[in-house]
Structure prediction request, 478 residues.
Amino acid sequence: MMRMERILSWTTQLLFVSLVFVSYVRKGDAGLTSPFVRSEWPAIDIPLGSKEFVVPEGHNAPEQVRITQGDYDGKAVIISWVTPDEPGSSKVEYGTSEDKYDFSAEGKFANYSFYKYNSGYIHHCLVDGLEYDKKYHYKIGSGVSSRKFWFQTPPKIHPDSSYKFGIIGDLGQTYNSLSTLEHYLQSEAQTVLFVGDLSYADRYHHNDIGIRWDTWGRFVERIAAYQPWIWSAGNHEIEYMPELGEVVPFKSYLQRYTTPYAACQSSSPLWYAIRRASAHVIVLSTYSPFVKYTPQWKWLREELKRVDREKTPWLIVLMHVPIYNSNEAHFMEGESMRSVFEEWFVHYKVDVIFAGHVHAYERSYRISNIHYNVSTGERYPVPDKAAPVYITVGDGGNQEGLAGRFRDPQPDYSAFRESSYGHSTLEIKNRTHAIYHWNRNDDGKKVPTDSTILLNQYWASNKRRRKLVKPSFGTAAF
Ligand SMILES: *[C@@H]1O[C@H](CO)[C@@H](O)[C@H](O)[C@H]1NC(C)=O
Ligand SMILES: *[C@@H]1O[C@H](CO)[C@@H](O)[C@H](O)[C@H]1NC(C)=O
Ligand SMILES: *[C@@H]1O[C@H](CO)[C@@H](O)[C@H](O)[C@H]1NC(C)=O
Ligand SMILES: [Fe+2]
Prediction:
């Protein structure tokens, strides 16, 4: 049985490789829909009590340890964790050599309830004044229950600071999610850009919602305790549940996941920006007001003016709902945000926009639809050198399974699409070049499947730009 599957998967891979080859030869035409169909692992959540969710030993031991960037420029981290039994200490001891903690910082804790679930004590501690490009060791908790971790600060803000980001979305807590994490660990990426929908705890009922937030925190600790995850919120974070008496949007998410929003003059943890190495990363909230005159709209308008491509050449935007997506799932849900922000993305020459939400993978060409006009009939997206590349990686592997139906024919804006689980990496080399990969989870194996070189929108002129013959979409044959 196992062997048969392996042979089948080999044949599909061979077929796939030859198709990729053909498509490269055929360069200049429309995009590629990968025929790869993964063998489904059960899209069920890992059962409670499994070793993937192991509770650390010792009374009140810190669990769900995670870090995120703590300031605008990468010289601070926020370290967060949960103590289950009593508040305990919010102190972080840290230093640059192992077992020698010369410094300490004091954080804060809070607890919350959701329906009848009472959370543990959630600690957030800002550790700032760090040096660039250094390994720091840190310790939290006390006595036999204390736990030790480490992280590496990014190189200084500089146009040629090289850096490798990973991009993960819609992760959940299934065996497919685990496979994504395992493959991510092999990628040697240094920071996760997370594009929303974390735990999928909202698919549970009553107290299990809180319990599944806790299991997810322990699940991702293997990575999140050692490198920052840059958070953005998805629809599964909203948790508007009047039937349980819970009507405050993002309640669990905001208690558990912090962001350095104040450092960039944002008024909400749901939208903010950071600078790291040679990148300026802007995080937007699909599920917060963003139309003209709202706080998010005003903040983004100002933040885009603060972007300095001479210092941080790479301008990256994260959001949950994709603006260009050709899957039947969530088709056109990004139109509302497109109509408000696309003009700015083109004007400021954003390099790449990562989104999740659709449980499949897709990469677009550089296209825009900023001439859309309801009164003149202008309505088609067209090739646009100044436009971002749009990448959807909502394929972390959550319990809802894959979005398997792509629209047919493949629209001209779509460069590559495949319905599989996986994650991406963006390896910034210098001010002009970045190497982008999407890695499929082929069950046990990590398979680099889609890749492209991104030439910087500010520093490199994109000479290899693909020309589309016609601006017609959707109905016409190629
Ligand atoms: C927080 O924990 C205390 C016990 O330390 C408890 O009395 C209180 O009800 C908890 N608050 C919430 C909102 O769960
Ligand atoms: C739409 O087209 C009309 C007529 O040409 C023009 O006056 C108007 O400014 C356009 N609106 C936008 C938002 O481009
Ligand atoms: C940037 O990196 C690319 C790829 O490694 C290399 O070909 C190019 O020469 C580099 N450019 C600069 C300005 O260093
Ligand atoms: Fe979503």
Notes: The longest helix spans residues 2-25. The first strand starts at residue 32 and ends at 33.
